[in-house]
Each structure stands twice: as structure tokens, then as C-alpha cells.
Amino acid sequence: MNFSEYLRYDGLGLAELVAQKQIHPAELLQIAIERSQQTNPALNAIIIPMHDYAKNRAQNALSGPFAGVPFLVKDLFQEYAGYPTSYGCQAFKRTGHIAEHNAEIVNRWENTGILTFGRTNTPEFGIKGITESDAWGACHNPWNLKHNSGGSSGGSASAVAAGIVPIAGAGDGGGSIRIPASYCGLFGLKPSRGRTPWGPDMSEAMHGAAIQHVLSKSVRDSAAMLDATQGAEHSSLFKIELPSQSYLACLQQPVKKLKIAFSTQSPIGTTVSKDAIDAVHHTARLLESLGHTVVEAQPEIDGMSLARDFITTWFSQFSYMLEQIKQQVPTTAGDFELDSLALAAFGAKTTALEYIHNLNNWGVYVTQMNQFFDHYDLYLTPATASVAPKNGQISIPSWQKPILKSLLKVGKAHLLAQGKLVDKIVKDNLRWVPFTQLANITGLPAMSVPLYWNADNLPLGSQFIAPFAREDRLLQLASQLEQAQPWFHKYSEIKV
User: Fold this and answer.
1) Is the peptide bond prior to 65 cis by the omega test (within 30 degrees of 0)?
2) Helix (H) or strand (E) holding 215
3) Terminal Cα distance for the chain, rounded
4) Other CB atoms closer than 10 Å to residue 155's CB: what's the count?
5) How buried is residue 239: exposed, middle or buried, by Cβ count under 10 Å (0-12/13-18/19+)?
6) Is the pLDDT of residue 486 over 70?
7) 115-120 and 70-74 as β-strands: parallel, antiparallel, unpaired?
8) 9, 300, 302, 438: least buried by Cβ within 10 Å?
9) Is the pLDDT of residue 200 over 90?
10) 0.90 cut: is pTM over it?
């Protein structure tokens, strides 16, 4: 098999060739490694190789739906025992931090027969919608190397789009599967709260707002991997109801006619690009051609209030995480990015009353979305407000850095987050990606579907949000859209 043949298959397709003994897992792995060696110097998608591990595993008897398929994991909460894990942070990279045990999601992926041969680039602690850390540098978008791949699962997205692997590990705490899926032209599903495990180190992340899954080129790969990884484990706070049939099987069911609401307005009042609007209108027309009813409507949720509550949780949780890290590893002043230190400073000043008020608001948003879904089957928006930003386009202005450093030094950086400046911080952080946090806060399943490329051949995804635990509805529709407007062939256009 040569690379052009390899590129024609998704993960399940490659596994079928292995099962039929048309190709050996070691041969597939070699193609993937060679492709990574060819493209990764330009992409910077894979930061920690695990070649020896994968080569040894390829000689074993593998079983499962993805037996023999090359795979990559995100360098964030997807640990392999005995291998470096940096979380995109200079402190862990410098000290050579080694994971003591596998993450449970990794164990479940391993049980599918995958061959993991590397860890992928991510922003520091996954806190940004771009992948551009001080520790590892920017991850470039294979559609145009001047642009970023998005975050926080940017390295995985870049590697899948470039054809290194057909599927890779990802995670989503505020859009981190759907944002890079949108920017890199991939299928990206964020499952419902509690659908996939976080153990053994955590019962859940960000009160269940963050969830683990994959980025893929095909819908069926995502469905099959969710079948293999879903369900509670010993660390889980609660058990989510399992579907009556497998997600892969539900793709074969006819899609019922759906009533789908759509909006192209930013919930926080920021600018939405013409590309994003065109992408949703294109998707709406496609849906209507398939017999679905499409109506312009949006839930009665105060978008700025939700965004403030998301930011409060995000910053506060990160402040706690940073303190925990400082107790685990020896750190220096230069080990953390200025952005990270500023976010932690803001979060540290959140009072218990403010935090509990914020969490109580999450329940209000859940109620409002449930009421909305009394009238509509799905909610459609742009996945991102524009195509991928250029590398270096999103950063602290140089004139602000000395001011921020001075305030951090005297413990006053949190003063920047008082009064009207709070709304400015919210908009500055989320203006590129204002649509994805709704599904995280409410715990609803959501997906980005690659149906639009602009005049410069840059993709932009369409996001669909479904009622709780209705991943089946999303996957069925995605499969129908994939058949109506196939996108798999477009990856052959990428030249890295």
C-alpha cells in the first residue's frame, strides 16, 4: 500500500483490511510514521513520539474494531503510563514529567486495537481555542500553513486532516473538539456530559462540561469509537443511560424528518464573518433539500450571562489546577505563559458565593435548552465565527505585557477583571469561538460537520446541538449529510 491508497480509507476501512489479512498492522504503522516524518516538520502536530511502543504493539495479536489502525492521542489528560506528558506546559516539558498510569479513556481506546505512536500538540493546559504554546510552538493548519489548527485539540486535528492518521484522540471543555474540527475540515462530536470516562484521576472535569472523544474524517469512525468508549467507570459521579442500539448500527437507520432551528448571530454580540454565515445558510439549504424543516430561531438564553459563567468556571478551575501543579513539580517564574498566569489570577479572586451562583445558573440554561427542544429537534449555528486565524493573530498586545507582568508581580492582576472590563475579557477570549460553550455548560451533545470551504479553500464547520443523550440523532444526521455532500475526497487536496 502506498500513501495515496492509505488516504482513501477511514479507520474502520483500514481495520477491515487488517482483518482480511490484506495488510499487516506494522505496514500501516510504517506508512503513518513516514507521513508524519514528511509533514510534521511543517505542521508541528506531533510533539512526543511513541514509535517503539507502537512498533512493539503491532507485532502482537490485536483485536477490536480498530485493530491495527495508527492512532495519536492528545498531550492533555490522555496519559500513557511510562511516557512523557506535558499538558502543553514548559514546567512539565522541562522536568520530563512521566505519567504513572493510563487514563481510562486510553485503556478503552487500546481495547479497540489501535496503534498509538505519538502525542499531539495542545495549548498550555488546553485553555485556548488555538494551539500555540510557548513550550511547543504553533500547530499549523494543513489547509494553509499560515493558519492555526485551532485548539485545544489542534495537534490531533492537524494530523488527521493531513492524512497521518484517520482518527485521533481529542477533548472538549469549551469547544476543543468542534473548534479544530471546524478549522481543519473534520468531523468532531462532543458527547453528552458523562458519556465517556475521566478516571482514574478525576470523576469529571469542569463539572462535566469537559468530555473526551476523537476527531475523525468519517462519521462512522466517530460512532464506532463512541460505542467502544462510552459508559461509566469506578471514578464516575453518575451513570449515563446507554443507547438501546450501537451508534454504528444507528447510522443504518433512516433519518426521520427533523425540525431544525438555526442562528448565525453571535450570542455575545461579536462579529460573525460572512464565511460563517454562508456556511450555515449552505447547510440550511442542504437540510431542506433532504426534507428537513429549517427555521431561524434561537433559545431564550442571555448569551453574555452564559459566557460570563463559563469564564468564571474556566478561570477558577484553572487557578486551582495551577496551584496543584506547583505542588507536584518544581516550577520557575518562566514555566507558565503570561496568559495562563493572568487567567489564574482572575480565577483565584472568585468568591465561593460567586462560584456557587455561577453553577446554579448552569441549571437555568439547561432548563431553557430543554424548553427550546420541546419545539425543535436540533439547533444549528456556525461552529466558529470565522475560518482559522493566522498563527500569531491571537495574542496579548505587546504594549499590555509589561503592564500585566507588573500587576502579577504585586498580586493585582485580578483588578483588570473588575467592573465593565469583565465583559471585555469575555469578548476578547470568545469572539473567535462564541458558539461552542453553550453545549459544554448544558452538557448537551454537539458536533461540527465539514460542509463548507471558502474561496481560499479554508473550511468552516456547521455546529449542531441535540437534546441530552441524543448522540444518535446527531450521528444519523451527520451520516445523511456525509452521503449527500461527501467530504472525504477533499483531504487528497491537501499538499504539505
Assistant:
1) no
2) strand 211-216
3) 20
4) 36
5) exposed
6) yes
7) parallel
8) 300
9) yes
10) yes
